[in-house]
């Protein structure tokens, strides 16, 4: 039996359908809450009241908030004042936006970090796309090695 006619095992449907295995549940929970009814827990349920614009805070407090949001953005999770938008067009792109009321120096510092955040999200998406059995053993092993580096 040659390689072209060899039967490859299929990836179980639950492996693709369960977002907790891939880390996509962070974005899915955020978008499901904004788009109508959602089941289960969402991040917004744990927030206390309505968020004030970040510009209402002192610059030192803004810096702490931005650090927290940037740490979340580094793994592809939206923060309170940093939002993530994905474009599933021809080129899969990830766009990060900051609250316009944020201090200008903090905005520029955050925007410099967004390139690293985007790279992580894109590499993570790549790993998920080639970790299927149909991609072959070499790609499967490569995806596993990349996944260990990302963790």
Sheet having the most strands: 2 strands, antiparallel
Query: What share of the residues does DSSP label as strand, in percent?
Result: 5-15%
Oligomer: single chain
Low-confidence parts? 35-43
Structural category is: mainly alpha
Task: Give the mean pLDDT.
Answer: 77
Give the number of helices. Answer: 5
Family: Belongs to the TUBGCP family.
Protein name: Gamma-tubulin complex component
Main location: cytoplasm
GO molecular function: gamma-tubulin binding; microtubule minus-end binding
How would you characterize this protein structure?
The protein is mainly alpha-helical. It has a domain at 22-34 and 43-117. 47% of the residues lie in helices and 8% in strands. It has five helices and two strands. A two-stranded antiparallel ribbon has the order 1-2. Helix 3 (59-73) runs parallel beside helix 4 and helix 4 packs antiparallel against helix 5 (137-150). The chain is elongated. The termini are far apart.
Question: Quick gist of this model?
Answer:
Mean pLDDT is 77; it is low at 35-43. It contains 5 helices and 2 strands, in the order αααββαα.
């Amino acid at each position: 039996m040659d390689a072209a006619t060899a039967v490859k095992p299929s990836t179980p449907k639950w492996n693709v359908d369960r977002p907790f295995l891939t880390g996509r549940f962070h974005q899915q929970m955020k978008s499901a809450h904004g788009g109508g009814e959602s089941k289960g827990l969402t991040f917004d349920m744990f927030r206390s009241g309505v968020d004030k614009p970040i510009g209402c805070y002192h610059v030192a407090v803004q810096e702490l908030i931005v650090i927290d949001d940037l740490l979340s953005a580094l793994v592809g999770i939206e923060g309170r004042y940093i939002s993530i938008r994905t474009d599933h067009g021809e080129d899969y792109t990830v766009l990060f936006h900051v609250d316009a009321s944020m201090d200008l120096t903090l905005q520029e510092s955050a925007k410099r970090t967004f390139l690293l955040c985007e790279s992580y999200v894109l590499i993570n998406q790549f790993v998920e796309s080639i970790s299927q059995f149909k991609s072959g053993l070499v790609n499967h092993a490569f995806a596993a090695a990349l996944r260990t580096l990302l963790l």
